[in-house]
Amino acid sequence: MIVPLPKLSVRAYFGVVTLVLILALSLLLLLAPPDGVERAQLLQFVGRFHPLSVHLPIAVLFLVALFELAGRSRHFSYLLTSVEFLLCVAICGAILAAFLGWCLARGGGSSGQLMTQHMWGAILVAIATWICWFLGARINVPRFARFYGFTLIATLGLVSFTGYRGGQLSRGENHMTQFMPAPLRSLLGVSASENGTSDSPRADPSTFYGARIQPLFTDHCVTCHGQNKHKAGLRLDSFAAVIRGGKHGPVVKVGDTKNSELFRRITLPPMDDDFMPAEHKRPLSPGDVKLIELWISHGASATQSAEAIKTAPPASIGQASVAEIEFEEIDPAAVAKERSALATIFSQIQQRLPNIVDYRSRTSADVVIAASWRGPQFGDAELGALAPLRDRIVAADFSNTAITDRSARVLADMKNLRQLRLTNTSITDATIEELGSLRELESLGIFGTRVTPSALPVIAQLPKLRHIYAGATKISASADVPASLKGKLVF
Amino acid sequence: MNDSMRHGSKRSHFDFDSERRSNRHFEQLQAQTRRHFLGSLTGGLGSMFLNTLASPISSMALGVERATGDTATFDLKRDPKNPLAALPSEFAPRAKRVIYLHMAGAPSQLELFDHKPELTKFDGQDCPASFLAGKRFAFITGIPKLLGTQYPFHQSGQSGQWISDRLPHLEEHIDDLCIIKSMRTDQFNHAPAQLLVQTGNPRLGYPSLGSWVVYGLGTENQNLPGFIVLVSGGNTPDGGKQLWGSGFLPSVYQGVQCRSHGEPVLYLESPPSVSPSQRRKMLDAMDEINQRRYAEFGNPETLTRIAQYEMSFRMQMDATDAMDIREESASVRSKYGSQLGEASFANNCLVARRLAERGVRFIQLYHWGWDSHGSSAREALNIGFAERCRQVDQPIAALLADLKERGMMEDTLLVWGGEFGRTSMRENRSGQEMKFVGRDHNPGAFTIWLAGAGVKPGMSLGQTDDLGYEIVKDPIEVRDLHATMLYLLGFDHRKLNYSFQGLDQKLTGVKPARVVTEVLA
Questions:
Q1: Strand positions, DSSP E, A257-335
Q2: Which of A38, A43, A276, A280 to mutate to probe the B interface, most B CBs <10 Å?
Q3: B49 in helix, strand or coil?
Q4: CA gap A292, B340 in Å, rounded
């Protein structure tokens, strides 16, 4: 790069440095393209700033166009003086955003056609912006001036294209048309069914492949072996792609399950490193595996009709597998909101009665009481202190404590109690007779108390009660119990 | 020294309450020199760089949750002065506490729960070659003979589960048991197999089940340890005290072995001439020294130590009371078959119930002596084994009955089992027929049972082949059992982890574990 005028030396520096950076970035993309392998977290961390940074150059480039247009008017001609600065900002922004984008893609394990186009689009934007800047600085030379206009328009086109591809990457391929109103859709000639499957033709559902095999791949495999990620170069989102195989060759050998890599991988022991689906994703059920086995051994055809393979298990039975546990997702904000009304009073009571009062779980605003370990040090006064939480308490264990019938009213107010333990306390029928209000109660422990059968009619009213632990009381197995308590008393 | 301590505390899962932290942080900042700043700056950059080089699984130092959902950590911060404080579980738990009855030495499933009439038919015949190919045995050599079941089996209860005549008392509760006949392990010697069952890893240095549970949930009763171990049978299990060790977790979470008669913990009582008030004064003085040391170095283990002294002071009152089975009536003791002053499994079962009533989180009983090789009368299936069955049968039944009548089966999880199974073949040490009848170790299949909170009662899961040698249906790995136990306690086993040696260490290890949904009620 030659320095045409001494006055421009700062510009020249800028030009050389940015051009070198752009070239270096291109080399980086060539030598270390995003290849579908996840990498270091730091890369991903840095990469996450890509969406944040990417809007700056876009906005600035459109601003340049606006300034150029407005600057044609005499009133706004002063805007033209800012254009060069804006272009410099856009160049820097484009380089930075492209680099962060590379971090995101390289670190996050993305690859695919969309990704490639988005990436090189970004490089072209940076180069085009650089040329705009280069030409714009020489706008006084007429032959440069004409090119400047063309280049600026081309840059805007490129940045729109790149942005659109970026949107497709993050929001799905059909993100522009997905929620497009039907009239507009028909006006533009976008059909609903076409969305998102532009280059993976939908398999014909009347064929065995289309009806039974492709849905399995779609459910279990395409997150990693699909259009947007093709790990090991393998895609399983269309028949042609399945047959084409991955970077280690074909994965399906027609008529030969033993030598079909795909079949070998899904039938390995689940803890094998090569087992698919990898990373603890839900494995195929035995029925699913059987379907794939039959499909391969019957010639791995795309056209065979859905009914052609008689031995295939019927569609409904193929799904039967052991239920998997769905672990709840914790939404801390929702939990905090649910707890907020009583949060202060809860923490006060918890401070007074540590390790006795607690939430049922981290996902819950329900409160459980475990007082039995305090033994005689927990009495009516302590139980009374729980009163503000009465509506939240779902389980309470007062076994072996010093509570008496004086606490009956407080207990009776805990209307959401599902489990109550009064084992080995000095409560009597007087307490039990108050408990008719506990409509949610499922399990009641009165082992080792002085409760007598005359308290049972009150308990018998409780609609949800399933177990009453009544050993070592005045109630005996031979006692005359109300009909609704039959089979619920445990001795 | 000062510097390394501070770094240590940063990595630890302990943290200080916020006010204390901000004050201390301010003081630390004031004490920082430019040299400190530059040092940590370059060091920090270097460590960030090294982090990017490491493989994706080993970079927890950044503390970023990874997208796989597999390694999300779970906030278990506590006030270090109170490391055993109860914490709510991740989601609503089915079980609040665990009683684990480990039959050390591995009881024979073929004489207790796994009914194999075919095996009896082939008694005395040569073992099929396919049983021996590629297998390693502790003692079996050459071609052993098959050994028929030594005791008659019958179906019992509403659930019609098979059980032998060795456990008549337990049989009364057969409809409460969930029997898993398809457990398997990859360890065929006692110590590593016990370590695998109890710590999830056959090697030393990993935290035990109980340590993980207490680390995750804390314990209600602050006057007793959260994890108590009782040993009977005349010997400590082969795996040693590491079976209740805390591994890389803070030492406060290790199991405390208590004796079932006399002083529960040796030297817990003050010496005869020391009064409680003197003891208190001594502790206060020690606390003050420790506090000073903590102020100087900021090492949270110092606070843990203070907490432990305080705990032992409180334990002087409560532990003795909890362990004292003389407080139980003679009729209760006879129900367990308990004799005062013995170190017996019966006494331990009774103590276990008392501990469960007092809010102890994890109660672990070991009964030694189930290694029925047939090399001596004590190890013979028809002599020593029968005696062991007699020792545990009545106490376990009494424990189940007590928990049931108090309603504690609703929130107590019981686990019974050994560390592996026993072979369908008669042991032939050095190729000779032995004087007594016995079986060798079989890691390929063994039986455990679960009962209580959240477990489906009266069912059995899994199946072994006709000779009881290998699993043919529903194999359950030890880590699956662990995942299931943690699930019942309200945890996702993948999230209960602890950062150590660059890995989010988990009880269930790195291999995929599943919650055995079939046994959930």
A1: none
A2: A280
A3: helix
A4: 66
Q: Is residue A186 part of a domain?
A: no
Torsional sign, CA B9, B15, B20, B21: positive
Segment of A86-90, A285-289, B21-25 carrying the highest mean pLDDT: A86-90
Tell me if B428 sits within 8 A of B144, measured CB to CB.
yes
Assembly ipTM? 0.82
Residues B101, B27, single domain; the answer is: no
> B238 with B337, same domain?
yes
In which residue are the tokens 């929001």 written? A171
Residues in Cβ contact with A87 at an 8 Å cutoff, skipping those fewer than 6 apart:
A64, A129, A132, A133, A136
For residues B260 and B368, membership in a common domain is answered with yes
Contacts of B54 in chain A (CB under 8 A): 40
Residues in contact with A322: Cβ distance below 8 Å, sequence separation at least 6, in sequence order: B517, B518
Which residues 444-503 on chain B approach chain A with CB closer than 8 angstroms? 487, 490, 492
- pTM, two decimals, is 0.67
Answer yes or no: do B22 and B132 share one domain. Answer: no
Tell me, yes or no, whether A150 and A222 share the same domain. Answer: no
- Residues of B whose CB is below 8 A from A270: 512
Cβ neighbours of B93 in A, within 8 Å: 361
Q: Which of B15, B35, B52 represents a domain boundary (last residue)?
A: B52
Whole-angstrom CA distances from B148 to A290, B175, B436 are 38, 27, 14
Q: Is residue A35 part of a domain?
A: yes
On the CB side of B277, CA atoms within 13 Å amount to 0
Give the CA distances from residue A191 to residues A180, A197, A218, in Å, rounded to whole numbers and listed in that order.
Answer: 11, 11, 22
pLDDT per position as a tens digit, B8-18: 333 444 444 44
Q: Using alpha carbons, select from B426, B422, B411 the residue that is nearest to residue B444.
A: B422
Instruction: Please tell me whether residues A12 and A57 are part of one structural domain.
Output: yes
User: Contact, B449 vs B113, CB < 8 A?
Assistant: yes
Which residue's structure tokens are 């049968």? B393
Domain coverage including residue B23: 2-52
| Token pair listed for A142 | 């007429």
Handedness of CA B101, B82, A393, B322 (dihedral sign): positive
CB within 8 Å of chain A, chain B residues 144-173: none
The answer to whether residues A354 and A475 belong to one domain is yes
Tens of pLDDT, residues B209-229? 999 999 999 999 988 999 999
The closest CB to that of A42, out of B52, B404, B511, belongs to B52
Long-range interactions of A269-275: CB distance < 8 A, separation 24+ = A270/B512, A271/B511, A271/B512
